[in-house]
């Protein structure tokens, strides 16, 4: 295996998202966001896919985001635990509705600004660099109800105002920014990805790709604003990553895998290269999509990102007919017979991380940042109170080893933030039992629990990984 040594400035850390951790969903002036109306249980997927028009809160539904793990009130305790592990970077997001509760407010919410300022100052107290996502699957519901979310071009102005406020208020506290989390997910899960739901008779592809255009213009515009606000700001895009493998060497399987990769990489092609890719013309024609643009949109798109960030949990597999798809993830895939899977059916493929890193770096020649990677699993508390999550340690160890191989291949990597460093609500299922963290939170799928934090075995393992700058992985 690789004898590569990580650079001294490598950013080790972990990641959470506001909508999966903060809770306090209406506290201190916060408005209602899209994730706040996505229930746990049998109706969850219907809402996520944009197939439900009634998006009011129901008394007989449980909404995990409303309390989540209450990071809003526990952040000092949680940041101290991350500092104990030696974190160099902490990825989180800003809840848009804490800053502008309705999205189209004339002035920002002072309480929301204060919360994030205090949070980032707490990080700085421990020399932890915040890595902040502006929009992590949470659009203000008022903007959904009034404008149809990203269907409307007016969203660009609302997002610009919100982003500008963040760049100004947190200047000097935050240097690393991401515009949209897993932007390609809007194709696969339109409501959770972009606040989109469909009306009968609509061309869903037209709706999705027009919304995508508005988001891509908004991303490029705020990237430009971030650089103008402070030349030290570094702005990245974010992909739900993982290459598609052809199910066989049948050329039709190979082509399907290629087409599926393009479907996801389309967004990053625009954000990293500053223009629509050549293949998009045929794709749009075949899907009967006509992108409505304004005169200067293509010029705005030339404001490209500084780095490419991505999540990686699993590789994917494609065949010519795409039958027998696994239902484990919103990005549909054929089950790969060569790989084991997690308790939730996600393929475990450490080498796939190296493959994905090489794909992205070869394609864009921009620095990469792995901002999500981890194993969702059920954890058991032993009689002595310990949580022996060796399966998580093994998963992370193997992926970090392949990460080193990719860096020795020549891939430039800025840092690594494992997902859900503190247990949180799983975005896919709304479960707490699908745990990712080094820190256990006493919270169950039905919302019960004390919220007590406990260190898992992986907590001490990851502390050693950071202490040795990735040299000790045992």
From TrEMBL:
<protein>
    <submittedName>
        <fullName>Aryl-phospho-beta-D-glucosidase BglH</fullName>
        <ecNumber>3.2.1.86</ecNumber>
    </submittedName>
</protein>
<dbReference type="Pfam" id="PF00232">
    <property type="entry name" value="Glyco_hydro_1"/>
</dbReference>
<dbReference type="GO" id="GO:0008706">
    <property type="term" value="F:6-phospho-beta-glucosidase activity"/>
</dbReference>
<dbReference type="InterPro" id="IPR018120">
    <property type="entry name" value="Glyco_hydro_1_AS"/>
</dbReference>
<keyword id="KW-0326">Glycosidase</keyword>
<dbReference type="InterPro" id="IPR033132">
    <property type="entry name" value="GH_1_N_CS"/>
</dbReference>
<dbReference type="GO" id="GO:0005829">
    <property type="term" value="C:cytosol"/>
</dbReference>
<comment type="similarity">
    <text>Belongs to the glycosyl hydrolase 1 family.</text>
</comment>
<dbReference type="InterPro" id="IPR001360">
    <property type="entry name" value="Glyco_hydro_1"/>
</dbReference>
<keyword id="KW-0378">Hydrolase</keyword>
<feature type="active site" description="Nucleophile">
    <location>
        <position position="372"/>
    </location>
</feature>
<dbReference type="InterPro" id="IPR017853">
    <property type="entry name" value="GH"/>
</dbReference>
<dbReference type="GO" id="GO:0016052">
    <property type="term" value="P:carbohydrate catabolic process"/>
</dbReference>
């Amino acid at each position: 295996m690789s004898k590569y040594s990580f650079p001294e400035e490598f950013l080790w850390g972990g990641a959470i998202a506001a909508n999966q951790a903060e809770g306090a969903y209406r506290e201190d002036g916060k408005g209602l966001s899209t994730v706040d109306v996505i229930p746990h249980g049998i109706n969850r997927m219907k809402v996520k896919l944009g197939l439900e028009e009634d998006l009011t809160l129901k008394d007989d539904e449980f909404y995990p985001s409303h309390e989540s793990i209450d990071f809003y009130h526990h952040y000092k305790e949680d940041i101290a635990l991350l500092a104990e592990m030696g974190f160099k970077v902490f990825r989180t997001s800003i809840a848009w509705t804490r800053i502008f509760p309705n999205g189209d407010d004339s002035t920002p919410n002072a309480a929301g600004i204060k919360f994030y300022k205090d949070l980032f100052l707490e990080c700085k107290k421990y020399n932890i660099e915040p890595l902040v996502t502006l929009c992590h699957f949470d659009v203000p519901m008022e903007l959904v109800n009034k404008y149809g979310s990203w269907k409307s071009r007016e969203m660009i102005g609302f997002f610009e105002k919100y982003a500008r406020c963040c760049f100004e208020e947190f200047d000097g506290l935050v240097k690393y920014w991401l515009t949209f989390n897993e932007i390609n997910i809007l194709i696969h899960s339109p409501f959770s990805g972009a606040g989109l739901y469909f009306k009968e008779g609509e061309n869903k592809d037209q709706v999705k790709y027009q919304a995508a255009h508005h988001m891509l213009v908004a991303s490029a515009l705020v990237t430009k604003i971030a650089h103008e606000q402070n030349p030290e700001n570094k702005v990245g895009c974010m992909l739900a990553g993982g290459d598609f493998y052809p199910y066989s060497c049948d050329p039709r399987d190979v082509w399907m895998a290629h087409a599926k990769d393009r479907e996801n990489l389309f967004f990053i092609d625009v954000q990293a290269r500053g223009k629509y890719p050549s293949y998009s013309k045929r794709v749009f024609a075949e899907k009967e999509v006509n992108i409505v643009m304004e005169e200067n949109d293509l010029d705005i798109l030339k404001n490209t990102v500084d780095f490419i960030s991505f999540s990686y949990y699993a590789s994917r597999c494609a065949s010519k007919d795409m039958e027998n798809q696994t239902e484990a993830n919103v990005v549909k895939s054929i089950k790969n017979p060569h790989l084991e899977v997690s308790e939730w059916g996600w393929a475990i493929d450490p080498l796939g991380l190296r493959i994905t890193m090489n794909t992205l770096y070869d394609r864009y020649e921009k620095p990469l940042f792995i901002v999500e990677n981890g194993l969702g699993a059920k954890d058991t508390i032993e009689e002595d109170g310990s949580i022996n999550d060796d399966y998580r340690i093994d998963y992370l160890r193997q992926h970090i080893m392949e990460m080193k191989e990719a860096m020795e291949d020549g891939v430039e990597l800025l840092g690594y933030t494992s997902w859900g460093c503190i247990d949180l609500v799983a975005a896919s299922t709304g479960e707490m039992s699908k745990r990712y963290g080094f820190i256990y939170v006493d919270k169950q799928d039905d919302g019960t629990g004390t919220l007590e934090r406990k260190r898992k075995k992986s907590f001490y393992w990851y502390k050693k990984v950071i202490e040795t700058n990735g040299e000790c992985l045992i």
